[in-house]
Design a protein that fits this description.
With about 230 residues, this protein is of the alpha+beta class. It contains three helices and 13 strands.
């Protein structure tokens, strides 16, 4: 299973996949409860960052084991079937120009999405994010899920309004330390061009110190991965 980003290709169009929302500009953050997946690539040395809307909502991209839950996802997860899922997203000229002078060793990247609505009829805070492939389970707390959503929402406000993602599906600029969607206690960023695993996490209660739910994307054939 893999979801692949062919970001160095010259093409500008996204691959069409049945059931995926058509391309749009502003990346939906977690404040609406069903944020969109987005790719972020940055070079801390060159001080450049690239952000891209993948036009997939969180509720459309859940592991098969995630059952419908009031206030969160209305449908059963479908993205880790035994038959596998293989998606490719064509690259664009903006990525190429943004990192034309970058060393591969300096490039870092991540894919994430958030759900910051919680309490009552709104369900729990949830997140999707990349991790080191095969990282395995870790102690990710409920409080960390909320902190991660705050980071995602702050990041997307800046990306949409200051980098220009509100006007186009991809945007780029300077200041990666401002725009990284870093999440607490987890290495969410890949270095160079390679593979990353993918996780769904969710709060399990109002206790910030209690462990969150953690589900790795994958099936009986192995772990799912994003490839840059």
């Amino acid at each position: 299973m893999k979801m692949k980003m062919n970001v160095l290709a010259a093409a500008v169009a996204l691959v069409s996949v049945a059931g995926i929302n058509p391309a749009q500009a502003t990346i939906a953050d977690g404040y609406g409860g069903n944020g969109q997946l987005f790719l972020t690539v940055w070079d801390n040395v060159a001080n450049t960052v690239y952000v891209r809307n993948l036009n997939l909502s969180m509720n459309d991209f859940l592991p098969n084991s995630i059952a419908p839950r009031a206030g969160d996802n209305p449908l059963q997860g479908t993205m880790t079937p035994e038959a596998g899922v293989n998606m490719s997203f064509a690259g664009d000229a903006l990525f190429t120009s943004t990192f034309a002078a970058s060393s591969v060793a300096n490039i870092q990247w991540t894919v994430a999405a958030g759900d910051a609505l919680t309490g009552g009829t709104f369900g729990f805070n949830r997140e999707l994010f990349t991790t080191n492939l095969g990282q395995g389970a870790w102690k990710y707390t409920n409080g960390a899920v909320s902190t991660g959503n705050l980071n995602i929402n702050t990041f997307l406000f800046n990306a949409n309004n200051n980098l220009g993602c509100a006007l186009a599906d991809a945007c780029a600029g300077t200041g990666p330390t401002t725009f990284q969607p870093g999440l607490t206690n987890v290495n969410t960023a890949g270095t160079g061009f390679g593979d990353m695993g993918f996780y769904y996490v969710s709060r399990t209660s109002t206790n910030n110190l209690a462990n969150a739910q953690e589900v790795a994307f994958g099936n009986s054939t192995g772990l799912a991965k994003w490839t840059l």
